[in-house]
User: Which sequence fits this backbone?
């Protein structure tokens, strides 16, 4: 499986996993000059900004460790940009989560980290 298709598969699995918990996807792969948000999910008046990561091997660290401070900063900036573009969500509570896969992209290997940063 190519890198892009693995990433797409991981995001799709994460999206459907969250959907099973009542979260609806309001945007996917939202882009700005500062970066990209993989998934933006909503339930009631709460929004989660989700970073999805996959690491086949842990030679350079785990998938969760790959979400460094620079990546977090760029995601926060992109989230602020998203809210400026879609003011209807500005009164929602916002949380930053991560869904990570280590070694394989399967439900068994999915780890949902709420309030990741």
Assistant:
């Amino acid at each position: 499986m190519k890198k892009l298709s693995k990433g797409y598969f991981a995001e799709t699995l994460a999206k459907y996993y969250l959907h099973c918990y009542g979260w609806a996807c309001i945007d996917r792969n939202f882009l700005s000059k500062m970066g990209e948000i993989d998934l933006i999910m909503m339930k009631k008046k709460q929004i989660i900004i989700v970073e999805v990561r996959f690491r086949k091997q842990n030679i350079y660290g785990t998938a969760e460790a790959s979400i460094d401070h620079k990546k977090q900063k760029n995601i926060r900036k992109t989230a602020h940009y998203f809210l400026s573009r879609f003011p209807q969500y500005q009164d929602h509570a916002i949380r930053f989560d991560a869904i990570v896969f280590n070694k394989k992209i399967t439900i068994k290997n999915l780890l949902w980290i709420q309030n990741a940063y």
Q: What stands out?
A: The beta strands are 24-32, 35-43, 46-55, 93-102, 110-113.
